[in-house]
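Quick board copy: two proteins, each given as sequence then tokens.
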Amino acid sequence: MQVERGARGALGARACRVETGLATLLSSILPDNPFYAAKLAGLSPDSDLAGIPFTLKQELIDDQIAHPPYGTNLTYPLHRYTRFCQTSATTTGTPMRWLDTPESWDWMIGNWVRVYQAAGVGAGDRIFFAFSFGPFLGFWVGFEAATRVGCLAIPGGGMRSAARLRTIIENAATVLCCTPTYAIRLAEVAEEENIDLSASKVRTLIVAGEPGGSVPATRSHISKLWQGARVVDHHGMTEIGPVSYGCFKRAGVLHVIEDSYIAEVIDPLTGRPVPRGVAGELVLTNLGRLGSPLIRYRTSDIVRAVAEARCECGTRDLALNGGILGRTDDMLVVRGVNVYPSAVENILRGFEAVSEYRVEIQNHRTLPELSIQVEPAAAHAQDSTLTHRLEAALTNAFALRRRLSLPSKRDSLARPGSSRLSHSRDQLSSVFGTQRKSHLSFAGYLFQSGFSAASRGCCLAYFSLPVARYACSAGAVRNSWAPYSDASSICPLPVRLR
């Protein structure tokens, strides 16, 4: 009974916080923000959250096209804004541009401070940012937040992987910030360049940009490569801000910073809330980015909130089990079975014999076909049982029976920094297919999770399944991620295919 009263009390406190936060936000931006003044016409600051319409990315894109270059989602006169960021290319081929005031930027720095605190990072730590420092938000805010908590912030922009590794070791960096795949790539480069990672002082990796940090097998793999360092996940978006921090008690759990966000989990088809424990789409309202706010923004991220109101770590911040499970536009229905990219990754990364893999969807037949290409590690190139073991693991996980086959062509999958890659859209089209073809890979993952000349001569294994498309709405556009260059390292190039 005491537990039930405590849970009810927590829910009541959360509802009060949501109501107060929303009213304050609406009072702060209306009627000065033209975008929301028009969108929320007729609503008052004391309106219920459920009565406010969702904000869709396409609305923001259309607004910036109609009112270039920044759109109308600006609460203040343009001279108040001092920061510029932009997303990767959208369906129109044009990125979304985002402006921030000093106050909004400071709010985001505060969120990143929370990320560091949860990761046990503080004064005296030396953080290396393996980040291109391009125009997208990325680790820009994290870099500035590092100085606020008393860390030495070491930029890694404009450097190749080997140079970054030497900088990490020579400066005794204790924390590394990068994407999960780039953490793996750095370890591979260390082996290729005979750089001894045991000389590294890195004890914590904060990873973002891809779901891998909350995938158990990937997290374990990265930790092993980095001499047992702890791997902490985090996620955010250029247009919404830094959203979550990794739970220090439960690996694989992300907490939404609910002091800064109103978080909802909805059914992507109906728009209605789903019970805790049920996967749904994450919807966010940022409460402190008043200069360019987003209200009930449909992120397209699939998450599953844990049932317990209070986490083992003591917080009541919304806990997302498994972090970001996938995207509403890349979840696949394979013979009635929901298949998420993170689930596939968890299986494949659990095999030491798997060096890299690639997931593709190709429209060769009436139904699209899902293919997984696997590159064996050099030490397992002659493992005749690998095909059978992978087939069995995938079949058991998804209750689907299909055989793996080995193609006659011998090659290795592309890794970041390969000279065989190009960034031009025309050249990428030759790899991914044109806009008219359904040839894409799981969003949020690199189309080719790596290129290694080291594994030349190893066969690729293909696992094929006919799949049915899943989309949250008619005409939804899927994402496909191209490999990224060594110089831009953690900036995957998106190619959006219909």
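And the next:
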Amino acid sequence: MAPQVADVPPPSRELPVSTSIPPSAARPLEWAAPPAPRSSAPALVLVLVLVLVLALVLGGTGCARDVSTPAGDDIVRDSAGIEIVESGSPVWTEATRWRLGDEPLMELGRVGGGAPEEEFANILGVHGLSDGGVAVVDRWRALIVFFDASGAALGRAGGVGSGPGEFRSFEFMRESFACRDTVFVATLGGMAQGFVAPGAYVRTFRAEPPPEGGTPGVRLCGAGGFVVQSRHSARPVTPGLHRDSVLLTWHDRDGRMRAVIDSVPSADRMWVQGVHEGLGYSDALFGPSLSVAARDDVLVTGFADRFELAVRDGSGAVRRIVRVDGRGRTVGAEDVDRFAAFVLDPWRGNQDERRRLEERLEAALGRPVPAFADVEVDAAGNVWARDFDHLDAVAWFDHYDALGGLGISTERSELDRSRRWAVIGTDGRYLGEVLTPPRFRVHDIGEDWVLGVWRDELDVEYVRKYPLIKP
């Protein structure tokens, strides 16, 4: 949490990127192609200029424009070997759009009277397996529970302890991801432990720290290795709104860093002057953040200040940039009112903290709403990006309230709403939107199913697999 502060200064309109590595230098170390040779012959340059001028005069669209594959209002062009796809209207019609079935194919979990494996407490991740089974990472119990395709429990692994395959505390479990049928749980200190069905520990991955320093955090796997994220922004010297950045690196299975993928922005943070401890920060309310997703050899990164996603290959090199127009808006009074109803109205904690939160909320009014809040890659290689709404702005507060940290009592009726996912096809075109059921959080997407966590009216968690219908 942010330190105690006196006054919150007005946010700066500038968002300086704090980074020591320019984007042009953040390139793969091993897979970068050599630069193309350049000719110094002036005659050749003159010929090329004459050809270009002639093409413009004659109106030849094949040479005058770099548009190669228009499809509807989509524009596909090439820039230095990187395909750029810009979309407006969706490809799907009402008759062809994808949707989730009304009833789940599978539901896991129960309250009382069942086996311990079937009672969940704060699910960190849910992952579909190739045989139709499911792995559930239960954070508060520090367990990984495996189920077969029928929903029967196969076994479990993990637990609290200091041995191989155990966790010192649930607080050390940061996130989970799957490398095909191996489920990894990332922990503090740049480590990730791997497990397979029916409940066996297989290995521990330790990431080599980057040369610039910083604590690495394992994010996901791809191209036979692991993607590691390390913060390397310089600490600001003045209060205000600053944009942090992180370094993404690719590591082999032994943890050695083999490539620098990129330096990318990670979050907007409000830095304020503390009473005793100098500058401290809190994430900007309704601020954009970095999303990273991978599946097999496809890696996707995107910072949500606009709807733009970089689709990369297994080495991290950008192969396609996807942009979708017409999805931007600003934080309005309705967003502020909903946030206040969820967090401020039931607040029972420190009133000074509440006042500072009100100031942060007022500063957010009129800022751009993040273009998305989460990104997933499905089994077919399509990219899904979930719309940001006020529930994402309160997620941090909801999390710490559940741990008893803030003393607020949130109103769960706000969860009774569907969430929207924009789907980008394997060719980079914007296909359309998929609505997910109320109270359902997506964790994994297959060819014909969507897997996630559903909460009932009492906040009890269940794992559900819904059919994905593609007319």
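Board note added afterward: The mean pLDDT is 79.
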